[in-house]
Design goal:
This protein has 416 residues and is α+β, with helices and mostly antiparallel strands. It is built from 14 helices and eleven strands. It is 57% helix and 17% strand. α1 crosses α12 and α11 (320-328) packs antiparallel against α14 (408-415). It is found in: Cell membrane. Belongs to the ABC-4 integral membrane protein family.
């Protein structure tokens, strides 16, 4: 055992000296592996970062939350022309489902709409996300109030002209002054501010509640009616925690089919979208991106591997005479094999290390510049290191074997 440890130590030292004596060649050999490892780890880190930000943005929301409307979160077999004929869900259907479907924890009626500008005296804040809902929506999504309160059931049902502001909207309109009780203008109407939310940060599936305002949906229904092209009605449902979600979806669909009078042979003219289905869809996209990244990066690694193999063959040829002398002095084939194999592995490891460090530097810069957290996980670091070693072994094995099998007499004669 001690003999093998000594052999490994001497082979390692010999390889390091060989790399030091050919600095330019070593640097050029590193570049191929560096680019390859950088490509793979950069893609994996970007995909992991995207997935983490999506998961964080869904944190606090029930993954079984259902979005009922005429659109689908993911791919569907229903033709586009047929989907365009589907009717919108409406407030009467919301009330019917609220009363008739079992095991509903919370249910909310919402309008999704375009961004708007909002004004208070001479101050205007643009591109504000308008969230129109019944009061139950505040119990489906997580909200924290900094000042004031959220609108209640009575205000929701009557469509009172009240508004709750996101943190950045309140700051933009009032510059740190008191917002509660003030009246702002939106849709040509005056709304009384009753609450300001705590700062929540950005997410990747619906902007940020910091730049949103919340109004009772019935207020807008009174102004624009149910069928305005400006608004997309959606019913959001949170089932009870102990319910079988598939059975719940089936009951929900059957109730709405009966209410709409859909014939048994006809397809649903609505979609029951579940939030976990959206995350599964995201996982599929992430998986495809990973595969695509591996395919592209694989070519870079292949080029890097060929570069190391080529350099190692050149190194064997240059040191043929030295190999012959070593073997004539009693060096074993294993010593020669390990000597060149270590050289190839060290080359690849340094290349991989540079690639990982480069990804880390770029991730830090982008995180600071874009306000988006890029993640370089320990798994990706270990993966990059492991791939580097593997590339070194594969690229160096043939040159190392050819060096170890040289005849000492022929090697000395060839090198002279």
């Amino acid at each position: 055992m001690i003999l093998y440890i000594r052999l490994l130590k001497e082979s390692f030292a010999f390889a390091i000296n060989a790399l030091k004596s050919n600095k330019l060649r070593t640097l050029l050999s590193l570049l191929g592996v560096t680019v390859g490892i950088f490509s793979i780890i950069a893609v994996l880190a970007a995909v992991d970062s995207m997935k983490k930000n999506i998961v964080d943005s869904l944190d606090g929301m029930d993954r079984n939350t259902i979005y009922l409307f005429d659109g689908s979160f993911g791919p569907t077999d229903v033709p586009r022309w047929k989907k365009e004929q589907f009717p919108n869900v409406n407030y009467e259907e919301f009330q019917f489902l609220k009363k008739s479907v079992n095991n509903i924890d919370k249910i909310s009626y919402n309008f999704f709409t375009q961004s708007q500008s909002i004004k208070f005296e001479d101050n205007t804040v643009n591109s504000i996300e308008i969230k129109l809902s019944t009061e139950e929506f505040f119990e489906i999504e997580p909200f924290k109030v900094e000042k004031g309160r959220l609108f209640n059931e009575a205000e929701s049902n009557s469509g009172t002209s009240v508004i709750v502001l996101g943190n950045e909207v309140a700051e933009g309109l009032f510059n740190g002054n008191e917002a509660i009780g003030k009246q702002i203008r939106l849709y040509g109407q005056k709304y009384t501010v009753i609450g300001v939310l705590k700062k929540m940060g950005e997410n990747m599936i619906g902007g940020s509640n910091d730049v949103a305002v919340f109004i009772p949906v019935n207020n807008i229904r009174k102004l624009y009616g149910e069928n305005s092209n400006l608004f997309k009605p959606i019913i959001i449902i949170k089932p009870k925690s102990d319910v079988d979600v598939e059975e719940f979806k089936a009951e929900l669909a059957n109730k709405l089919r009966n209410y709409r009078g859909i014939k048994p042979d006809d397809i649903n003219n609505f979609f029951v979208n579940i939030l976990s289905g959206f995350t599964d869809f995201i996982d599929d996209i992430v998986g495809q991106m990973n595969i695509f990244g591996w395919m592209i990066s694989g070519f870079s690694l292949l080029v890097g591997g060929f570069g190391i193999a080529n350099i190692m063959f050149v190194s064997v040829k240059e040191r043929t005479n030295l190999i012959g002398i070593q073997k004539a002095l009693g060096a074993k084939n294993k010593f020669i094999l390990f000597q060149f194999l270590f050289e190839a592995v060290i080359l690849a490891m340094f290349g991989g290390l540079f690639g990982i460090v480069l990804v880390w530097i770029i991730a830090m810069i982008l995180t600071s510049a874009l306000d988006f957290e890029f993640v370089l996980s320990a798994f990706n670091i270990l993966l990059g290191s492991g791939l580097s070693v593997l590339i070194g072994l594969i690229s160096g094995i043939l040159p190392a074997i050819s060096a170890s099998k040289l005849d000492p007499v022929e090697a000395i004669r060839t090198g002279m």
